[in-house]
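**Protein record**
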Amino acid sequence: MVIEQIYSDNPYRNFHYLIGCPDTGEALAVDPLEVDLVLARAAERGWRITQVLNTHEHPDHIGGNEKIIAATGARLLAHAGAKGRIPGIDRGLKAGDVIPIGKTGELEVLDTPGHTMSHVCLFCRGDRPGLISGDTLFNAGAGNCHGGGHPEHLYNTFAEQLSRLPDATVLYPGHDYIANNLRFTLDREPGNAKAGALLTQIDNQDPHHARLTTLGEEKDVNAFFRLTNPTVIARLRESFPDLPEQPSPKDVFLRLRELRNSW
């Protein structure tokens, strides 16, 4: 499979994805809000979009469904629990489902609640594994829970699923938020040299050619993976004096998410 990341110059800073099979030319489009951009990239590749997948039900992820399906006749895939919130779902997805793409491609569905309670991520196995993470995991950050989600479920998704994926997994998030997220990490852990170096590298990058990170890198630069770091805990206790000296990773995650909401 080939994964194409497509950035849109809109206020949401969306990333769209085309995942194609070079042998057959069949492709799946993920969260194609800016439909013309996605159709143009598919045409450049000589791909036919046969499936559309929404990671979750928020308008900036499903807003292009009607237009792209009218243009391609593609089937619509989304979390089974999103029926009623995403019109026209042809296939409801659950954890462990496999989505075929052409003859050679397969994506594994992960049920990843937290940002919303009907959110899926897509895991691509192979020599260079990849994770289409929607708004659950961002470069150096974590999704918020304002629009129908819950931070405790988000923590469980991080702890029980994302952290257990191979460190070599390449991250493909739903938005370009990396610079601000790295600044949050450095606010929580000022001595994090790897986060500082990455921020210097990407601060003025062209998001049309965005720097990709791996989960191994995320564990070094993403505060939401650094839940036992003494500096992170000490600085968090300055904002939350009731936090114990040796808090649980879950407590640290929840307080970080709370702090990030207004940071």
Observations:
- The CA atoms of residues 227 and 249 lie 5 Å apart.
